[in-house]
Amino acid sequence: MKKKTIFKKSFCSTLALLLVCLLLPVTAEAASVRLNKTNLTLSIGKTYTLKVSGTRAKVKWSSTRTNVATVSSRGVVKAKAPGKAAIRAKVGKKTYSCNVTVNANAKAKGLRFQTLDNGMFIQGSSSAKISFSLDRPSVNVTVSVKASNGSVVYKNTFRSCKANTTYTVTWNGKKGGTAVGSGTYTAVVKAGSIQTASARLIIRRNEFSGGTGSRSNPFKVANLTQFRAVARYNGYYFQQTAHIDGHGVEKFDGIYSADNPFNGTYDGNGFTIKNLIMRNSGKENLALFGGVGVKGVLRRITAEKIDLIGRANSAVLFLVNNGKIDRCTIKDCYITGTDCAGMLGHRNNETGLITNCKVSGGSIHLSRNGNGDIWSSGLIVDNFGSLMDSETTSVSMLGTIHWGSALSAGVIRWNTGKVSNCGATNCIMAAEKNRDNPNAKVHEERTAGICELNEGNISDCYSSGCTAKADGVYEDRGIVR
To answer: Is the distance from CB of 214 to CB of 115 less than 8 angstroms?
Structure first.
């Protein structure tokens, strides 16, 4: 009996030990198996590879919502649409999970909000284009236009957007069929939780007779009020559509200046600006256009019977030109000032180009109360740029001097640039001393039909019938051909 009992105990102990030995490896392996991610956030289109460690057994992968995220047989998770899904890895009878959140977050790139014709956005008549691309794919992307108070006046939704692909919408400037008011508006692109805003676009009421200020649809200028408004729209295109007549009573100080030059295009279109009084005895630098920038263009402008009463540096059309002046005409205009004036313009700088301009009739009368010289010219006082194919006819340049010299010319007073095929006909240049001062003296009259002082290049120019000390160039330090 004792032997049997001992055998039973030994057998049971051996069996228990065998079971322990069989179970221990499985338990150890199960304890070491794990998924490298339990939570994961992806943007649409992005992928991530999940891995199971601690086992060599085959892993079976699955997704609870394949419309949100899919998973390949190798554990590659791909985000499909916004939402949440669980990616499951089954190893034997054990399942491991990773919670995946898919968002549609994307940043808009190259967001532009501009008018279709690149002109000004005019209330009730313009349309705008909104264009953008995204840095990554997204869905349900909204494009809206917001007023400065934050209210939404337009909204459009793209169900799906690819990365680095340009998308465009057009807005007609209306909300519910009614034109929005003037003010500042911004385009906003929202992809997921990320919003990207454009530069501001200003909508204005039309101050002109039509147009948007673009090259293809210039602002239409039909009266003096609209011509004054040109000062508020620098860089745009303008076309005059009617004669602008001040009837001899309208006063006008001019628009733009050398510090704030005009950089748009103004086309006089064959119409005139006439019968204006430009009177400001205390103001220097008086002209229709105070300054023309490098991008500025004045063409086909006709100024007629304008009385300009100022001080120094006066001219009918422009004071300082850095751009282009073409086919402009000055007729029967009158300038009264102190020491410096030109009928067409005062100073043409190095980048300035003047072509096919004409001045006829009218006069310049300068009067100095103190010591100093007077400078005048039928076309340009000082030229540092190019002057071509232009002429002056029947212009009088007179001066009253306290003590100093008179320096005048029919075409150009001082030239360091290029002048070609220009001339002066029947122009009068004269100076007299101030009769109210017995000590007054005209020190010297340096007057010429073409140029008083040349330090540049003059070619194929002429003068005829001018009362001047020199028919051509008074003093030449450059080249005359």
So the answer is: yes
> Could you tell me the strand order of the sheet in which 358-360 lies?
244-245, 272-274, 302-304, 329-331, 358-360, 391-393, 423-425, 462-464
CB 417 within 8 A of CB 456: yes
Residue 230, helix vs strand vs coil:
helix
* Rounded mean pLDDT, 259-281: 93
The C-alpha angle with vertex 365 and arms to 363 and 371, in degrees rounded to 5, equals 155
pTM over 0.90: no
Which residues sit opposite 279 in a β-bridge? 309
Q: Tokens 């508006």 label which residue?
A: 185
Phi, psi of 393 (to 5 degrees): -135, 130
**Alpha carbon distance 172, 180 (integer Å):** 10
**Burial status of residue 403 (CB atoms within 10 A of its CB: 0-12, 13-18, 19 or more):** middle
Beta strands in 338-411 (DSSP E): 340-342, 345-348, 353-355, 358-360, 363-367, 374-377, 380-383, 386-388, 391-393, 396-401, 403-409
**Both structure tokens of 380:** 């340009």
Each residue's pLDDT tens digit, 430-481 = 888 766 676 767 778 899 999 999 999 999 999 999 999 999 999 999 999 9
Residue whose structure tokens are 């805003």: 197
Assign residue 438 a region (left: φ > 0; alpha: ψ between -120 and 50; beta: otherwise): alpha
**Predicted pLDDT of residue 440:** 64
Nearest to 142 by CA among 101, 192, 177: 192
pLDDT digits (tens, 9 = 90+) for 89-146: 999 999 999 999 999 999 999 999 999 999 999 999 999 999 999 999 999 999 999 9
Handedness of CA 219, 225, 227, 233 (dihedral sign): negative
Tokens of 462: 């002429």
User: Which residue, 325, 323, 122, 328, is CA-closest to 217?
Assistant: 122
User: How far lies 17's CA from each of 5, 21, 24, 135, in Å?
Assistant: 19, 6, 11, 63
